[in-house]
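pasting for the record
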Amino acid sequence: MPRVVSVYFPFLPTDRIRRHGKDGVPADQPLVVIAKSGSKRWISAADSNARKLGLHIGMPASKAQAMVSTLVVVDADPTADAAALERLALWALRQYSPAVAVDGTDGIVMDTEGADHLQGGEERLISGLVNMLRARGLTARAAVADTWGAAHALARLTSAETTVVPIGDVAKAVVGLPIHCLRLAPDTVHSLRVMGIETVGELSALPRAPLTLRFGPEPGRRLDQLFGRVAEPIEPLRTLELVEVSRNFQEPIGAAETIAKYVLRLVNQLTAKLEQRGLGVRRSDLVIHRVDNTRQSLRAGLAKPVRDPARLSKLLCDRIEKIDPGYGIERMVLVAIMAEPLEEKQIASSLIEEQVVDVTPLVDILGNRGQRLYRVTPVASDVPERSVARIGPTIEETGATWAAKWPRPSRLLPHPEEIEVIAVLPDQPPAVFTWRGKRRRVKRADGPERIFGEWWTTPLEMRAVRDYFVVEDETGERYWVFRAGDGLDVATGSHKWFLHGVFG
């Protein structure tokens, strides 16, 4: 079943001006965008600061300036807003989904069927998307539902940053929404409200024939799209720089063997085009057009640029069982959504030196099955939990090493866990400690290794101290524990004890 994500940008014009304006606007200063028509000037967009002061869209510009003396006023530029929205759609196309389109003047919409596993599921996909946009100075709200209409409505009418409607629960989620969420003409919405119709549930309960006779087919069509009775396919955004090949079928196909045969042919055509441009594919989308006017997409991601037809075909053909041909497939499109320059490298002779095994094909296979692959790399920090970071599985070695002279545990806990300790003196290693409900007696201890806080990271660590000990219990298990503070001055830490790692 298709799953649609709608992303709504409530402050897109003002966010764009703050990000790309020639003269920076202070974050705490109210900002409005003014539209003009003849001698009339009114607010077409206002940021959150301006709205808190009582300004709203449609208010005359002169009244707004009289109300707020510090108001920053910028002329509207719909062309720049549309270009910014298209750039956002292209970014989402490369990062999140094979099918992304601009949704009106304030949002984008994408079908994530077959691609959400690459982001760790729907919850992680939309929360990561919203957080990434926030880091770039853009306010966004996102909703996931079975239909475009439901996702569009919930993203704009709920205050939550992210909303996920479970599969099959669209009716329950939208029945109480106001009728203007149906993307109907304002005159139609006004006429329905005059009749006393305020919610989607009330409108859907009306007999269809009189409704169509009075208002035409549009209200019924929008209701059917909202509830998923009628398909509303997303026409993917395409640009000239994208490398794309396609195949139309006079007779619809549906057998897995036939699909695999034509996938291989499309891959050969795509790689030939990529070779002409000196490119390799990093992310490719296979879009299936079915005879019932619905689409299905498969996305294959690669760790490095690739132009090997056999390798790319395997990634796509391994997931053919996920394709539902329905009543038949009438068109297949293969697009290199993300392509990068590919340098040809000469393979060394095995008679001269040992050939290095390339593990990127295995990384690609596991990654396209939804596995989250990474390596760890050293980071210049004395604080243990900051001294390691996750990087991509195929990123080249940086040459950095851990500088610690003391032994480090093979397993470092994600967060230090507090333990109960009995020690002879406050600044001595534990004699007995209790961790996860089990009491352990210490037979041997080594330390302390003193680690100071990184005051340049946060002022709270100006005087922070940790004293680490390697302790061994009566069963021979070895643990890495520390005391927060130097054991004397409470300003250096709470003097509580924590277990931070386990030695293998």
